Amino acid sequence: MDSRAARLALALLVVAGPLVLFARMFGDAPRVPLEQGRARASLIVITASEWPAGELEHPALDTLDLRAAGVQRFRSPSPSTAAAAVTLWTGRPPTNHGVLSDDRALAPGCWTLALAARRSGVKTSFASQEPLVSRHAIDGFDEVREGALSVADLKDHARRTIAASAGEDFLLWLHLVDAGPGGRAVGELVAACDAALVESGDTYDAGLLVTAFRRSGAA
C-alpha cells in the first residue's frame, strides 16, 4: 500500500468513529423484551438450637456435605436462641436489632428476609419446636406452626409445603430444639425435603441452609 492509500484509509477510520457513535446515540433504540423472565429461587432453612459435638451421622448429611459449601469456624452472635434467630433473619447483630435475650422481641415494622420474600410474592412458611416467630415478632411468614411438634410433624409440614407450592417459589423454615445425636434429627429433615422436591416433579432451584445457634462445648 502506497502512502496516499494509507493516508486515505487512516482518514476513513478517523471519520468512521464519530459516525458510528452518532448513529448509536440518535438511532433507533435497541429492541428489548417487554417482559423479562423472573428468576426462580426457593429457600429451605433448617436450624437447631443445640448442635451435637463430634461427627454427624446420617446419610443425608453425608450427601449434603459432598455438594455443599460449609463454614466450619464461626461463632453465634449470642448464646440466646432468640438473638441468633433474629440475626439470621434480619442480617443485623443483636446490639442493633435489640433482641438481646429470649424475653425480648423485634420492634414493629422491622425488616426481615421473610417479609421481603412475602412482599415479592413468595410463599413463606415456618414450623418449629419453639415459638420463635410469635414470641420474638419475626415477621413475614404466611403460615406459622409452633409448639410440641415432633420430627415427624416437621417432616410432614415440609412435604406438604413443598407439594402445595405447585411450581411457585417458596421459603420454608424448620426449627429444632435439638439436632439429636449425631445430628440425626436434622438429617431426617434434610432427607424429607430432598424427597419432597423430587416427588414434586418440578425443577426447583432451591437453596438449603443448615445451621446451629449453639454447639455443645462451644460459644
Structural class: alpha/beta
Mass-distribution shape: extended
**How much β-strand is present in the residues?**
15-25%
Distance between the ends: 78 Å
Count of β-strands:
5
How do the strands line up in the largest sheet? 3-2-4-1-5
- C-alpha Rg, in Å? 26 Å
Proportion of helical residues: 40-55%
Average per-residue pLDDT, rounded, comes to 79
Unreliable stretches covering 5 or more consecutive residues: none
Biggest β-sheet, characterized? 5 strands, parallel
Sketch the topology as an H/E string, one letter per element.
Answer: HEHHHHEHEHEHE
**Structure annotation, total helices:** 8
Description:
It is a single chain. The chain is of the alpha/beta class and 219 residues long. The chain has helices at residues 3-26, 59-67, 81-90, 94-97, 113-119, 132-136, 151-164, 184-199, and strands at residues 42-51, 123-128, 143-146, 170-178, 206-215. Helix 2 (59-67) crosses helix 8. The longest helix is centred in the N-terminal third of the chain and has 24 residues, at 3-26. The model has no long low-confidence stretch (mean pLDDT 79).
What are its keywords?
219 residues, alpha/beta, 5-stranded parallel beta sheet, extended
Give me a quick take on this structure.
This protein is α/β, with parallel strands linked by helices and 219 residues long. It contains eight helices and five strands, in the order H-E-H-H-H-H-E-H-E-H-E-H-E. The model has no long low-confidence stretch (mean pLDDT 79).
What is the fold's blueprint, element by element?
Layout: H1 3-26, E1 42-51, H2 59-67, H3 81-90, H4 94-97, H5 113-119, E2 123-128, H6 132-136, E3 143-146, H7 151-164, E4 170-178, H8 184-199, E5 206-215
Parallel strand pairs: 1-4, 1-5, 2-3, 2-4
Helix pairs in contact: 2-8, 7-8
